[in-house]
Amino acid sequence: MSRQSEPIFDAVVRIDKLPAAGRSIAVDADAETRKAIAEAMNILSVERFVANLTVSPLRGGLRALGHLDASVTQASVVSFEPVAETISEAIDRVFLPAPRDAQAPAPGAEVFVDLEDDDFPDHIDGPEVDLSTLLLETLALALDPYPRLPGETLDSLGVEVGDKEQGPFAKLARLKRDGEDQS
């Protein structure tokens, strides 16, 4: 995913203006926005991108809880043919203010990090949180890293994947063996 200065769609929440009961955010991307998302993700197309979040205040920050549904098309890693994928991901993320300098640990101090805890909060600077970044990150992590059509393999395309070693180091090893045989 490439970095951009402007968000692809508006999902900014101001913490200082967030009601105590929280608020709902609904994103239903239009065709132009879906095209921009596809370009940012470096995939063929995004046919559907719908997210519903409930944002509520939490310890000076906020908690975003909701769901992302998307339909995307990627290129197969085998044949480069389009592969459709449906994504349905739950979202539960906490954003907390970054620790102030007075609260920062002293250099060389021991800091406890619970690696068993899956809910590391994201740190924020300022009164705003851009939830579009959260939604795009959720989509990026849910994409199949190696999309391919059902039953599609290199063998089905007629590409030999035999046991014979390939590449420059295999060729060097054969040259070395051939040199030893001649002496």
The profile of the biggest β sheet is: 5 strands, mixed
Strand proportion = 25-35%
Count of discrete structural domains: 1
Percent range of helical residues: 10-25%
**Which structural class matches the secondary elements?**
alpha+beta
Distance between the termini: 55 Å
Walk across the major sheet and give the strand order: 2-3-4-5-6
Q: From the alpha-carbon coordinates, what is the Rg to the nearest angstrom?
A: 24 Å
Q: Count of DSSP helices?
A: 3
The H/E string reads EEHEEEEEHH
Shape: flat
Report mean pLDDT, rounded to a whole number: 82
Q: Number of DSSP strands?
A: 7
Query: Stretches where pLDDT falls below 50 for ≥5 residues?
Result: none
Task: Summarize the structure in words.
This protein has 183 residues and is an alpha+beta fold. The protein has one domain. Helix content is 21%, strand content 33%. The chain contains three helices and seven strands. The protein has helices at 31-41, 131-142, 168-182; strands at 12-14, 23-28, 45-58, 61-75, 82-97, 122-124, 128-130. The chain has a five-stranded mixed β-sheet, with helices on one face. A two-stranded antiparallel sheet has the order 1-7.
Secondary-structure topology with pairs:
Elements: E1 12-14, E2 23-28, H1 31-41, E3 45-58, E4 61-75, E5 82-97, E6 122-124, E7 128-130, H2 131-142, H3 168-182
Parallel strand pairs: 5-6
Antiparallel strand pairs: 1-7, 2-3, 3-4, 4-5
Concise summary:
The chain is of the alpha+beta class. It has one domain.
Descriptors for this entry?
183 residues, alpha+beta, 5-stranded mixed β-sheet, two-stranded antiparallel ribbon, 21% helix, flat
